[in-house]
Amino acid sequence: MRSIVGLVVTAGLCSAQGQLAHFHHVHLNVTDPAAAIDFYTSKFDCEKARFAGLQDAVWAQKSWLLFTKVAAPPKSEVTSTIWHIGWGAEDLPATYRKQLDAGTKFDTPITDISDIGGGTTMGVFFYAYVDGPEHQLIELNTADHHHFGHIHLLSKDPIAAGEWYVKKFGLTRRGRGTPSREPHMYRGAQIGPAESLMMDNVNIIIFPMEYAKTQWPELWKDRTDLESTKGHTADHLGFGVDNLDQTLARLKQDGVTITDEPRSVAGGKIRFAFVEGPDYIRIELVEGQAHKE
What we know:
Radius of gyration: 18 Å
Mean pLDDT: 94
Largest sheet: 9 strands, mixed
Strand order of the largest sheet: 1-11-14-15-10-6-9-8-7
Strand content: 35-45%
Low-confidence stretches: 1-16
Structural class: alpha+beta
Helix content: 10-25%
């Protein structure tokens, strides 16, 4: 087994201190943005739209997929914290057959992991990984919707990373009580400790880095840490904030590294900066909330 589902959800919600940002976008490096846009909009529930009047992009319910054209294929190996992005499917076996009929290539075929939460009933929870543009992994998993639904990260310390997102941006943790720091194995791979957080309609799940060591041993035989997401197919995540200067001042006071100071494009219409999050993830802070014009 090369990979496991990108979603571990436990019942119940615990409120955070208040959401300080909203999910804005996933930014992808691709050699052919037009082809990538055609791929996503033909395979998944999303639509082509213009981002801020600047460029063609993909609008996925409440947030964006943005694309940067690069001259050579970007790094797609699972060696940075952004593991994959995902859409839901109410009936994954039927969706999987439909995707196969449409010529979609899969990195991982449909797999039944109904017992991942400890139960014994099978045939109710499935996942599969689509091999997307520039080999971006795109998960389809059983859900009560068919929308863009989650981002799965890897971390050297998932619990500490989760606390960072809760404290810095007010994400909501899924699950009751204090997250366990005990290792948890499933089918020979370490999937815990883990965190599951909500940012608007996007579930951000964090698995231990050890998972990647098991699933991609050749990539990880001489590696002891994750690397920056910069330059990978999934280059960074974008969060929308109401006041960029105030947010950066608060984060600086908290010791967060500002990697790119604020700048503006489109005649000041878009203002943004970059910070470094846990495990060298690049996070773009955009002033204002994601919206389709």
